Amino acid sequence: MAVNEVRALLERHRHIVQEIDGANDHGEDLHVTFVQNGERTEDSLAIQVKGGVSTRTRRGHRVPVGDHESNWRDGSLPVLCMVHDAERGGLFWANATRQLRRASALRKKTRSIVVSRESVLHDANIAEFVEDMHHYLVRERQGVGRWADMAGVEFAPDDIVKPFENEVYEPMVFWQRRGEPFAVLLHHDLDWEPVRIQERMLHFEPLPSVGNVILDIAEAHWLMGCFRSTEWWRRPVKQGEPA
Description:
Layout: H1 2-12, E1 16-19, E2 30-36, E3 39-51, E4 60-64, H2 69-74, E5 79-85, E6 90-95, H3 96-105, E7 112-116, E8 120-121, H4 126-142, H5 145-151, E9 160-165, E10 171-176, E11 183-187, E12 195-197, E13 202-203, E14 209-210, E15 213-214, H6 217-229, H7 231-234
Parallel strand pairs: 3-5
Antiparallel strand pairs: 1-2, 2-3, 4-7, 5-6, 6-8, 9-10, 10-11, 11-12, 13-14, 14-15
């Protein structure tokens, strides 16, 4: 019944839903491709569906991860968990991939996906949900969605996001919002905690660094290039300009 409720909601809004044979269930019940203006988009994801009673908590629901952790976190498609609980108001959802990536950044073991009672999905807000998923999946295709998830941040559609990997394969991200006088550094060695940085904080001597963050020389030169190429995006937004 829960799977049918999710399928019915998505298909009412003309999205493409493919149910996975229950005999081959590997932690995903549905594959979904979103449709816009009658045309199939490049936005696809997987959904694990549960009935509500068995997963209820006081604040919502919890969906057990079981042995699906690596697939939900690192698979080719992001995975959502959806719970149908008619007594509590219908369908509720959570981004399992995002929660598992964040837990990995914090070096925590996640046994279940938290589904908040506030994250309800219905006909009135499904367009907003699909738009949010579109932005999320765009960042996935750009190769920076993982780092936003691990840092627990949201990249806006017009943010400048520049990833980099040093010689020992440690990833980091330069993140610039429109009109902000500072950028943000997301760094593997800093457990992905956002650090505000400015160009004046970048030094090459005596050791390459930005603020209190020690860098190697390649990282310092990369950051300099990021600052120089995004200076225009830090300028204050003038009155009348689109934000």
